[in-house]
Design goal:
single chain, Rossmann fold, six-stranded mixed β-sheet, four-stranded antiparallel β-sheet, 13 strands, 36% helix, binds adenosine-5'-triphosphate, ABC transporter ATP-binding protein, DrrA1/2-like_C
Length: 300
C-alpha cells in the first residue's frame, strides 16, 4: 500500500489553545479520505499543516515524500488546494480566473479538459459573483486542479450546496479521483462522508477519535442500538437487561442502546416469553455517522 501522507504524533498549539493533540494517520494513494468533526475540532488546522501553511508544534508530517512546511515550493507543484469561493474576486469572469491561475504554472495546464469535464464552457463569460453556489464550487475545483495535482485538498467542498448540486459535486470529485488524484477533504455532512469517502477520520477536541471505512464505523454503531415496540414493555425492566446501557422511550417504542446487541436481544426475547409480552416491532437499528458523531460529543 503506497502512502502519500504520513502523520506521526502531530500536535499544534496556538498559545494556550491546543488545536491538535498527538494525532497519527496515513493516507493511501488513490483514496478519498474524509476528515470530520464538529466546529473547532481541529480539521482546518490539520489540513493547514498538510498543505504546509502552518508547522506542527510537535511530531512529523510527510506529504509525497516532502516535509510540507519546509518544501512548500516543491509541494505546491504537486498538490491542489481548493480556495473558498470568497477568495475569488467577485467581478472576475470565469475565463479570466482560469487564465490567471493557469499563468501560475510553468508547464501546460489541463484547463481545456477541466472546462469540458466540469461543463464550464457555458459560464466562461459570467462574473464569479453571478454564479450559483454550485457553479462557484465547480470553478474553485477547476482552479485547484489545473496542474493535475497528485493530491487534492478540499475544505468543505459542498458547503452551502443544495442536495442536487451536492451530488453533482460528489460525481466530480469521484471523476478527479478516477483521473489519478488522491483526495483529502473535510466535511460537516455525515451523508457525504458515508457516500463519498473511502475512509473517514473523526476528530474531536483536537484528538483522532476514530479512523476507518464508513462501513466499519457504521457497523460499530449498528452494534449498539435495537428498537422494540409493545404496549406491555416496562422501562426499568428493559434497562435491567444484560448489555443495555441506556433506554430511550417514545410512546410504546423503545430504543435500547446496548454494549452487546446479540446478548440483549437474546435476553429480551426470553423476557418477552416469560412475561407473555407480544412485540409489535423489533429491529436492529441501522446506525449513521451522525450517531457516531453524537456518541463522541456526549462522551467528550
Ligand atoms: N490561528 C489561530 N490562532 C488561535 N487559535 C486558533 C487558530 N486557528 C485555530 N485556532 C483554534 O484551534 C481550534 C481548532 O480550530 P480549527 O479551525 O482547526 O477547527 P475546525 O475543526 O476546522 O472547525 P470549523 O469546522 O469550525 O472550521 C479552535 O479552538 C480554534 O479556535
Amino acid at each position: 500500500m503506497e502512502h502519500v501522507i504520513t502523520v506521526e504524533n502531530v500536535s499544534k498549539s496556538f498559545g494556550e489553545v491546543q488545536a491538535v493533540q498527538d494525532i497519527s494517520f496515513s493516507v493511501q494513494k488513490g483514496e478519498i479520505f474524509g476528515i470530520i468533526g464538529p466546529n473547532g475540532a481541529g480539521k482546518t488546522t490539520t489540513l493547514g499543516m498538510l498543505e504546509g501553511i502552518s508547522k506542527p508544534t510537535q511530531g512529523s508530517i510527510d506529504v509525497l515524500g516532502l516535509i510540507p512546511s519546509k518544501h512548500l515550493r516543491d509541494l505546491n507543484k504537486r498538490i491542489g488546494v481548493q480556495f473558498q469561493a470568497t477568495a475569488i474576486q467577485k467581478k472576475m469572469k470565469v475565463k479570466e480566473a482560469l487564465d490567471l491561475f493557469s499563468s501560475f504554472y510553468e508547464g501546460p495546464t489541463q484547463k481545456d479538459y477541466l472546462t469540458e469535464l466540469l461543463g464550464l464552457d457555458e459560464k466562461m463569460n459570467a462574473h464569479f459573483e453571478d454564479l450559483s453556489g454550485g457553479w462557484q464550487q465547480r470553478v474553485t475545483l477547476a482552479l485547484a486542479t489545473l496542474h493535475k495535482p497528485e493530491l487534492l485538498f478540499l475544505d468543505e467542498p459542498s458547503m452551502g450546496l443544495d442536495p442536487h448540486a451536492r451530488r453533482e459535486m460528489w460525481s466530480l470529485i469521484r471523476l478527479l479521483r478516477e483521473q489519478g488524484s488522491t483526495i483529502v477533504m473535510t466535511t460537516h455532512y455525515m451523508e457525504e462522508a458515508e457516500k463519498l469517502c473511502d475512509r473517514v477520520a473523526m476528530i474531536y477536541n483536537g484528538q483522532l477519535k476514530a479512523l476507518n471505512t464508513p462501513e466499519a464505523l457504521l457497523h460499530q454503531i449498528a452494534g449498539q442500538s435495537l428498537i422494540v415496540e409493545s404496549d406491555r414493555l416496562d422501562y426499568d425492566d428493559l434497562l435491567a437487561l444484560p448489555g443495555v446501557v441506556r433506554v430511550e422511550q417514545a410512546g410504546e417504542q423503545f430504543v435500547l442502546v446496548s454494549e452487546d446487541r446479540q446478548q440483549t436481544a437474546y435476553h429480551l426475547f426470553h423476557y418477552c416469553q416469560e412475561n407473555e409480552v407480544a412485540l409489535l416491532d423489533f429491529k436492529f437499528e441501522k446506525g449513521s455517522l451522525d450517531d457516531l458523531f453524537i456518541h463522541y460529543l456526549e462522551k467528550g
